[in-house]
Amino acid sequence: MIELSxxxxxxxxxxxxxxxxxxxxxxxxxxxxxxxxxxxxSTLLKLMNGLVFPASGEVRWNGEALTQAQLKQRxxxxxxxxxxxxxxxxxxxxxxxxxVREEIAYTLKKLGRAxxxxxxxxxxxxxxxxxxxxxxxxxxxxxxKQKVALAALLALDPQxxxxxxxxxxxxxxxxxxLVDTLVHSDRTVVxxxxxxxxxxxxxxxxxxxxxxxxVMFDGPMRMALTGMALLExxxxxxxxxxxxxxxxxxxxxxxxx
Length: 257
What we know:
Layout: E1 2-10, E2 16-25, E3 30-34, H1 41-48, E4 56-61, E5 64-65, H2 68-71, H3 74-83, E6 84-87, H4 100-110, H5 116-126, H6 142-154, E7 160-164, H7 172-183, E8 188-193, H8 196-202, E9 205-209, E10 215-220, H9 221-226, H10 228-233, E11 237-244, E12 247-254
Parallel strand pairs: 3-8, 3-9, 6-7, 7-8
Antiparallel strand pairs: 1-2, 1-4, 4-5, 9-10, 11-12
Helix pairs in contact: 4-5, 4-6, 5-6
């Protein structure tokens, strides 16, 4: 579905964020990106979503190059923006309409989708935000904003759902609903997280990014979560010292923010 080949990326006047990264995502896969702060997880999702473009290397979507020039082609852009969507970690960047109802309907209308009102009602009901439909998005809590942004994306029925720290603002019940609804469906999902326990629920394949923006591991989730040396090297675990009486010992401890 989406392929990154030897991709490198850095922000202007800054160091490289991702370094010669290669990755393939097949239809229906559930992939979790693990890594410490600053390792490039959010940037990788933005590259997949065509919001930024690599300094070198190539990103391909269903076999077609994903470039600035390609996204200026109206028909390609319309298909891609409906099929590949990204839930930001901070949803304030996604919300700009006067009401929640208009927010969920906005892209549906722009893409000329049918049954807009029915889709708005359905996803508002699924995410339990019907009572917010006539409220202004800016007046909502962080968790409510993320639910609105998620409803707006799911209403498009995308092929690929990219999630940037989906557990950051959502309450545990909504995170549980997200896991049940999306991870156990046929939809392709790529999610980034710091949480080792949430990672185990979100996907079966794990990609661990190093602090230099390189792929340190790409394989089964169980192997990643039990590989404490790998997690320590990636900044997701540390040696934790304990004192019991006069004795001191140390063991590896996984981070789970």
